[in-house]
Write a structure and sequence with these properties.
- By secondary structure, the chain is α+β, with helices and mostly antiparallel strands.
- The protein has nine helices and four strands, in the order αααβαβαααβαβα.
- The chain has two domains: 64 residues, no CATH class; 121 residues, Alpha-Beta Plaits, CATH 3.30.70.260.
- A four-stranded antiparallel beta sheet has the order 2-3-1-4.
- The chain is rod-shaped.
- The structure holds zinc ion (ZN).
- The site of zinc ion (ZN) has 6 residues, from α1 and α3.
């Protein structure tokens, strides 16, 4: 009777004992009892293993949750990286198109008289640079002009016409010229300034209004 009563008391205390929340007196009472009572000892070991299993379960749940969160973050990151890359590509392509356009789409060709002096050629260059200090000025000699003509026919597939040229013989038929690359807004100003030069035979300017069209044309060449 006394023993059975002790077992009931210990049974009530076992959970607290396993959790380690008992007072020292209760703890001593339980531990001395389970040394002599196999039934209570077994109950305790069951409770301990139950608690252990519960803890592991909750840990696993936590890990699953963390894995899910990480997966979601990774997916989000991938999405952000892809969208970011596309945006970067579009921006870069547009910048390239506009740089290319501004550098190359607008040009003035200034054909020079054979009688032009070196002094006047210098003055023409300076007058252009006064309007646009970043203008790209290329001198094209009569020989270069013949070569360009040959190249043009070759590129177009008219090899017969290309072969019909002779640089030494034909250079007298081609004028020297300046090719000026500038921004579209400078073309009119530059043409106006150059009108007063005696040594200029004629001028020709070309602009392409649509940067994208210009870019596509260049790609297809
Ligand atoms: Zn007992």
């Amino acid at each position: 009777m006394e023993i059975k009563n002790k077992c009931d008391i210990v049974s009530d205390l076992l959970l607290g004992y396993a959790d380690g929340v008992l007072t020292d007196t209760s703890k001593e009472f339980v531990s001395s009892h389970i040394q002599t009572c196999d039934k209570c000892k077994e109950k305790l070991s069951n409770i301990v293993s139950d608690i252990k299993a519960e803890k592991e379960d909750s840990q696993e749940l936590e890990i699953d949750y963390l894995k899910n969160v990480r997966k979601k973050i990774t997916k989000k990151n991938k999405f952000i990286i892809i969208i970011g890359s596309i945006l970067m590509l579009v921006v870069t392509l547009n910048i390239m198109i506009f740089i290319n356009y501004n550098m190359n789409a607008n040009k003035i060709e200034v054909f020079l008289k054979d009688s032009i002096t070196e002094e006047e050629m210098k003055e023409i260059k300076n007058a252009i640079l006064m309007q646009d200090s970043k203008a790209e000025i290329t001198y094209i000699s009569p020989e270069d002009a013949v070569k360009n003509a040959i190249q043009t026919f070759e590129n177009a597939g008219y090899l017969e016409a290309a072969n019909g040229f002779n640089i030494e013989r034909d250079k007298s038929r081609f004028p020297a010229s300046y090719k000026i690359k500038t921004k579209v807004e400078n073309i009119e100003k530059i043409e106006h300034v150059l009108m007063s030069f005696e040594g200029i035979r004629t001028m020709r300017s070309s602009t392409i209004i649509d940067p994208y069209l210009f870019f596509i044309n260049r790609l297809s060449i």
